[in-house]
Amino acid sequence: MTEPREGGGKDIRQWADGILAGNRRAIARAISCFESGDPRGVKLLKSLYPHTGSAFLVGVTGAPGAGKSTLVNRLALHLRKAGLTVGVLAVDPTSPFTGGALLGDRVRMGRHALDSGVFIRSMGTRGHLGGLARATREAARVLDAAGFDTIFIETVGVGQSEIEIMHMADSVVLVLTPGSGDAVQVFKAGIMETADLFVVNKADREGADKLVRDIEEMLHLAKGEGGWLPPVIRTEGKTGRGTEDLWSGLKKHRTFMREHGLWEDRRRSHLRREVQTIIEERLQRLLLDRMDTSAFRSDLELVHSRGSSPHRMARKWLSDLIGGKGE
C-alpha cells in the first residue's frame, strides 16, 4: 500500500481501508502520523472512528523493572493460543538523541515478530507527562479499527502522574514486586484507586507473601468502583506462572463492569476527558498566538502600571477567544 502524500479525500479513504483490512504498513504509518502531529491524522481518524470501540483496552503500569514488558509478552502468548489478536503499545522514555522510544520495537518483539496476529509498537513520551505518549490514544484507536481484540497499553512507570492511564483503559493492572518498596509509594500516592487488578510479579522472591497481605489489607479499606474488589494475583513473568489467572481476572472485571452498567459509563467518562483536553489544548494554542501581538503586550503594560488587574485582563482575553462578556 502507498502512503497518501497530499492528504486528499480519496487517499485518506484508501489509507483507512488499508488499516481496516489489517495492513501492517498502513497501521504503522498511521501511528507515525499521529506521533508527528501530521494534520492528515484528523481526517484519517474521522474515517476510522466509526469502526472503533470493540477492542478491550488494558492498561499495565508499575515501576521500571517490575517486569511489565515480560508480563505483557506472556499475556500476548496466552491470548494468541486462545485465538485472539493482540496489539501492544509500549510507552518508553524518549531518546535525547533520536527523539524516538529509548527501548524500541525490536527489543520487545521477540517471538511475536513474525506473528500477524500481534502488533507491537514502542512509543516515546517526547516529554509528555503522565506515563503515556501524546499519541497513545490515537494509536490505540488505529489498532482498534484494525480489528485487534485486546490492546495492552504499557506505561513508562508509576507515580502520581501515572494516573492518566485510568482515563484511557477499560481495565488497569498495577504491577508490583517484592522488596522494592513500591507498595508504600502506591499507598501514599493514592494510586490504589486507579487499579482494577493488582499483580505481585516475581512472586517467587522473598517478601511476596507480605506484599500480597499488605495490598489486601489496604484494599479492604478502600471501595472499588461499583463494589468491585480488585484481586491480587501472583505472577512470574519469566516462567509464565499466573498468566492464565491474570487474564481470567481481567475478563471477570470486564464482565463485572458490563453487568453493573459501568462499562459504558467509564468509556463516556474517558471521552469527556478527551474532549476537554482537546479543547484546552486548542484554546492554549490560540492564546499563545495572541500573546505575541502588540495588543496583548499593550494590555500587559497596563496591568504592569496598575491600570488594570491580571484577572481583568485574563477575562478580557478569554472573552476574545471564546466570546461572552469580558467582565
TrEMBL record:
Keywords attached to this entry: Chaperone, GTP-binding, Hydrolase, Kinase, Nucleotide-binding, Transferase
Chain segments annotated as coiled-coil in the UniProt record: none
Organism domain of life: Bacteria
Domain AAA+ ATPase: 54-308
CDD domains noted in UniProt: MMAA-like
SUPFAM superfamilies assigned to the protein according to its UniProt record, in alphabetical order: P-loop containing nucleoside triphosphate hydrolases
Keyword Transferase: yes
GO molecular function, a single term: GTPase activity
Matches recorded under InterPro entries: AAA+_ATPase, GTPase/Isobutyryl-CoA_mutase, GTPase_ArgK, P-loop_NTPase
SMART domains: AAA
NCBIfam families in UniProt: lao
Similarity-based family: Belongs to the SIMIBI class G3E GTPase family. ArgK/MeaB subfamily.
Name the UniProt record assigns to this protein: LAO/AO transport system kinase
Biological source species: Melghirimyces profundicolus
Lineage: Bacteria, Bacillati, Bacillota, Bacilli, Bacillales
